[in-house]
Design a protein that fits this description.
This protein has about 400 residues and is an alpha/beta fold. The protein folds into three domains: about 170 residues, FAD/NAD(P)-binding domain; about 120 residues, FAD/NAD(P)-binding domain (3-Layer(bba) Sandwich); about 70 residues, Enolase-like, domain 1 (2-Layer Sandwich). β13 and β14 form a beta hairpin. The longest helix is centred in the last third of the chain and has 15 residues. The N and C termini lie far apart (about 55 Å).
């Protein structure tokens, strides 16, 4: 049984950031990081963004091994917070002084058994899809949300024939204003994507390496590969079995401590109090994972800091790009302020007169202003927001 002063369960961005936070305050304390992935921590967003645009693979690594001992390809099977012990599926047993649970999330899967679908989540998924893209030409992307829209754009820019299938009316339909989302349908079609909205996949048939997709409306699509990006579920089974408080993620306090002594949580699986929204939230994006992981690491090493970061998320869709903060839901009150419709502008999301989300559409270097606006109590009228944040 090996002892670590700091033990981290999870090899994503939150886990890596925790090693950095620890080392800011403790240069020598032993750190162990257990990850189910075979690869050392890396910049996950590059899997659907930078690597498709030519970013070298060697640039994604976080060099976590410089700060921690990596225990890769190991899934933690049990956690005893009373005895402070952890066991993994390879027979490893560990004790700790402080523990971080950064178990992330797993892709939601379709009910098609062993059919060959790439659920795009990790480096191995990227490498597999990249190999397929080098050898094959036709792809179906299931899902019109964050990952689906990025992968469809990436494959199309790689010269592939892409069909998108999703349940909503339009790409990003749950998040973007209706007119913007419908514009994205047209925009993707102009780029060569066959966009099939308001439809579902009802069956997938395999014949060797050839696949046939049938939709609820009766469409039949022949394809060489299928990628699904339909969301993730937080990995909370370990936390639940250990008796931690779990409710839409692992519940943490303002210092990112769980309901068990000396146990912290961060990243996609953590449910925290969002200071700008005034309510608890769980955020599945890079910026949040890095900020939470770093602060959790610092607090594990003796700091007593409060998590007040307002996380951002961002995406690249062909020639379009955006950054956003707060809560974005197409059912909210939405105030668009376009410099040029659908090409450049700021979109405000309101609830009870207060700005709850800001979408910076091809507008850059304005995140500070957007975060500050989320903290203002208002109430705001639509006309008061016009020109509030100006694009450069």
């Amino acid at each position: 049984m090996k002892h670590y002063k700091y033990l981290i369960v999870g090899g994503g961005l939150a886990g890596d950031a925790a090693t950095r936070g620890i080392r800011e305050l403790d240069a020598d304390g032993s750190i162990g990081l257990i990850s189910a992935e075979p690869d050392a921590p890396y910049m996950r967003p590059n899997l659907s963004k930078g690597l498709w645009k030519g970013r070298p693979l060697e640039k994604i690594w976080r060099k976590t091994e410089e700060r921690a001992e990596l225990l890769l390809g190991r899934a933690v099977t049990s956690l005893d917070t009373t005895k402070k012990t952890v066991k993994d599926n390879k027979g490893g047993e560990y004790t700790y002084d402080k523990l971080l649970v950064a178990t992330g999330g797993s892709p939601i899967r379709l009910p098609f058994g062993l059919v060959d679908i790439t659920y795009f989540r990790d480096l191995q998924d990227y490498q597999r899809l990249r190999k397929m893209a080098d050898e094959k030409n036709r792809f179906v992307v299931i899902g019109g949300g964050f990952i689906g829209s990025e992968i469809a754009a990436a494959l199309t820019m790689a010269g592939k024939q892409v069909t998108m299938i999703f349940l909503e009316d339009a790409i990003g339909g749950r998040v973007f204003p209706t007119d913007l989302a419908r514009h994205l349908n047209d925009y993707y079609r102009e780029k060569g994507v066959d966009v099939i909205a308001n439809d579902s996949v009802t069956s997938i048939q395999m014949d060797g390496d050839h696949l046939t997709v049938q939709t609820g409306s009766g469409r039949v699509i022949d394809t060489d590969g299928i990628v699904a990006g339909i969301g993730i579920r937080p990995n909370v089974a370990l936390a639940q079995e250990a008796g931690l408080n779990v409710e839409n993620g692992i519940v943490v306090n303002e210092s990112l401590q769980t309901s068990a002594p000396d146990v912290f949580a961060a990243g996609d699986a953590a449910n925290f109090f969002h200071i700008a929204l005034g309510k608890r939230a769980r955020v599945e994006h890079e910026d949040n994972a890095v900020a939470m992981g770093k602060l959790a690491g610092r607090n594990m090493a003796g700091a007593s800091e409060t998590f007040t970061h307002i996380p951002l998320f961002y995406s690249d869709l062909f020639d379009l790009g955006y950054e956003a903060v707060g809560e974005m839901n197409s059912q909210m009150e939405i105030v668009p302020d376009w410099d040029e419709p659908f090409k450049k502008g700021v979109i405000y999301y309101l609830a009870d007169g207060r700005v709850r989300g800001v979408l910076l559409w091809n507008v850059w270097k304005k995140l500070g202003e957007a975060r500050a606006l989320l903290m203002e109590k208002g109430p705001f009228k639509a006309e008061e927001l016009m020109g509030r944040i100006k694009g450069e």
